[in-house]
Amino acid sequence: MSTPLVSTVSAPAPPTTIPAVANGVRPHPPADIPHHVAVIMDGNGRWAAQRGLRPTDGHRAGTENIRAAIEAFAERGVRCLTLFAFSTENWKRPRPEVRGLMRILSSTIDREVKPLHDAGVKLRYIGQLDALDARLRRKIDDAIALTRHNDRMTVCVAFNYGSRAELVDAVRRIVADGVRPDQISERVLSDYLYTRELPDPDLIIRTGGDQRVSNFLLWQAAYAEYVFSDTYWPDFCEQDVDIALAAYAQRTRNFGGRPANAD
Ligand code: IPE
Ligand code: IPE
Ligand code: MG
């Protein structure tokens, strides 16, 4: 039985807001709720600068709302949430900031894995794990192992993730496996990506006001909807979740075809 991620003073949400498991089968969320949401969590540095703080303080503040954000998406029926926390290009940042980000990931794992596990969250990781230090790698592996049987929601952390690096890795492994040119298809390439066990994102939210992709899920986002929020990530709250999901619900997705009701 999952327990809520965040305790609130209000009455508990009616059970229908979190899909119940009946005979082991979960009802699908309504069609206008995205199955997979991916978030580019941007704006930590500007949030900190506005307060006369260091970027690292912004990054730390940007972990304090994570649990509430995950819970808000879960309650609304989102089944998979990917969080972009550190890109392959973010190593260009000043060393104290990079070191701070590594420490913050480590302390966030220490603080959040147990409540997330209790809430039925399965944790996943995408990115280049090899470049992280051995203790941090072990923490990530342990969190994945602990939560592997949970099925309320999958939360995938993209850390040291870059879409171009992912594609280069995939091509290298395809060649190393001796896959012949005539065996290569979109399906095969997808199966070599870090995201092979995740559905493509339906909705990508970028916080912080910039309207760019910054090397995130380039292949997987072929038909994703984008929502750009001016909110700096540490301020991103339940209301911002609702705004993004409402914008998504207004969109018509064609996937290159005609809308369902067109002649
Ligand atoms: C996003 O916040 C987190 C990372 C890139 C690690 P930023 O640090 O990029 O925040 P801004 O864009 O400078 O405000
Ligand atoms: C994207 O933000 C990466 C993450 C949020 C982890 P950046 O702040 O690194 O993106 P750019 O450099 O402004 O494009
Ligand atoms: Mg930024």
Please provide a written account of the structure.
With 263 residues, the chain is α/β, with parallel strands linked by helices. It has a domain at 33-162 and 201-249: Undecaprenyl pyrophosphate synthetase, CATH 3.40.1180. It contains eight helices and six strands, in the order E-H-H-H-E-H-E-H-E-H-H-E-E-H. The protein has helices spanning 44-50, 55-64, 66-75, 95-118, 134-147, 163-176, 186-191, 238-249; strands spanning 36-40, 80-87, 121-126, 153-161, 203-206, 225-228. The chain is globular and about 55 Å long. The structure holds 3-methylbut-3-enyl trihydrogen diphosphate (IPE) (2 copies) and magnesium ion (MG). Magnesium ion binds next to loops.
- The low-pLDDT segments are 7-27
| Major sheet details | 6 strands, parallel
* Oligomerization category of the chains in this entry: single chain
Give the beta-strand count.
Answer: 6
User: What is the percent of helical residues?
Assistant: 25-40%
The global form is globular
CATH H-level superfamily title of the domain at 33-162 and 201-249: Decaprenyl diphosphate synthase-like
Q: What is the structural class?
A: alpha/beta
Average of per-residue pLDDT values: 91
Query: What's the arrangement of strands in the largest beta sheet?
Result: 3-4-2-1-5-6
Fraction of residues in β-strands: 5-15%
Question: What order do the SSEs take from the amino end to the carboxyl end, as H and E?
Answer: EHHHEHEHEHHEEH
* Spatial separation of the terminal alpha carbons: 47 Å
The ligands bound in this entry are: 3-methylbut-3-enyl trihydrogen diphosphate, magnesium ion
**CATH class designation of the domain at 33-162 and 201-249:** Alpha Beta
Gyration radius (Cα, Å) is 19 Å
CATH topology of the domain at 33-162 and 201-249: Undecaprenyl pyrophosphate synthetase
Query: What is the second-level CATH architecture of the domain at 33-162 and 201-249?
Result: 3-Layer(aba) Sandwich
What's the tally of helices? 8
